[in-house]
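Weekly structure sync, notes
Attendees: PL (lead), two postdocs, one rotation student
Agenda item 3: pending single-chain targets
PL asked that the sequence for the first pending target be pasted directly into the notes so everyone works from the same version. It is reproduced below exactly as submitted, 490 residues in total.
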Amino acid sequence: MKKHSGLYSAVSILLVIVLVAGISLSLLSSGRTRPENPISTQPDRLQAESLQGSGSTGGQSSGKDNTENTDTAQDPSEPQKPDEPQKPDEPQKPDEPQKPDDTKPDPSGPTDPTDNPGKGDQGGSKSDDNKGGSEDSGDHGDGTGGDDGDHGGSGGEEDDTPRIYTTLKTQQLTKAELPDGKLTFVAYPLGKGDLHIRVRLKNETNSGNGLLLTSQNNQDYEAQLDFNADNLFVLSLYDGETFLGLVQYRIGYYANLADDTHPTVGDYPPSIVTNLDGVSLDMSSQTFPLTVIARANAELGAGVIYSNQIRVTLDGKTVHHTLTVRNPGTEELRFGIGYHPAFNIPFDAQHTTTDYEFRFDQPESPVILDARPNGLLSGKCYYQWKNQQAIQLTDDLFANDSFCMAGLRTKTIGIYEKGTGRKITCNVEGYPYALIWSAPAKPVRFVCIEPWHSLPAAETDPQQWSQRAAAACLAPGESWETTLSTTFER
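Predicted structure, written out during the meeting:
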């Protein structure tokens, strides 16, 4: 019995030893193989997937923090990235300044073509937006009206601005320059948009809204001008049906004008006579009337078309020239008036243009009422000279017509020959405006000093004289007069 009991004990011990050995072997085997798979097979794939995730979300989440990027990595639409949450320190876009500074960018990130999708896309969209979009609304002052939207420089900006090109200009034409009265010109729109223009001619023949001019090729136009009248051209610019603005040009078309070289012009020039024609008087200080009468040509009936009596007083070196306006009619008389005396330059053959200058009797900063380039007021003003007492005469001084000065304090304006003491001065005291002028010529042949009580016509003045600014308005029976005193020291 004891032998059997000892055998059972030995077998039990052996089974226990085998069981313990088997368990130990199983534990040791599982400890070596279980971590081997994720370590040996996943690292390369995980590294590649983390870059792809960062690149694909970088352009869409510009300015977001790391928490949002981690959420993006957990997007259920990307099942191929189950292990990605184990990388909380996933690198962000290296070129985004809004990312935290402690983020460690992966050096391979910038080579991903999706790292910077915004720049390419935005560049394209800007270019498209400029084609007929909001940039053509007329506001091009911010430099965005360029050709590609990325660099709105002055060249591109100016090219895109809707505007009108035309050969028209405000001017006065004569019969000699335009015998048939037919004016041809070019006008068409420039810039971006569905641009077109409308050209209208307004004159006595075409009143109201005027005559709408047409062109076969939308750029070459022809218009018949009214004779001895002003003709107003109005050019309106449209983008589709949207009105953008307009420009205007006033063109006068008149008979040929007489001058010093051609005292009579035209087929039937009038005759002008005075009561002193052919009379030689020896006077030193005397007042006398000068009667001026203009008559129509004998072929046209020789009727009086103008008659006036001027009182002239000679006082040593000074001529006092008085103009009187009377209203003999039954209706109000409106008029504008000013003097237009001209003085030969140079005084003799030994001097030239630059030997002369205009002078005030004190330093002046005259306000110039802009009448460039054809003598019609534009509504603008500017300073040509500041704190100057002398204006040098040159052959180009009057290249853009006259200088109409306002606000003068000086009592006299004169033309002086430098270094000799010879001069001609006009007393302009009491006149609201004073002009200096000469006809364009090289060399200058004469200069004018012109005290005025009224202004030249404006570019936008109406056709009717009654609607223009007047020097005075006289009731029936009233009169008005002014005097210009000119002193000669030669």
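Discussion points:
- The longest helix spans residues 2-33.
- Residues 334 and 466 are 7 Å apart (CA to CA).
Action: rotation student to compare against the earlier draft before next sync.
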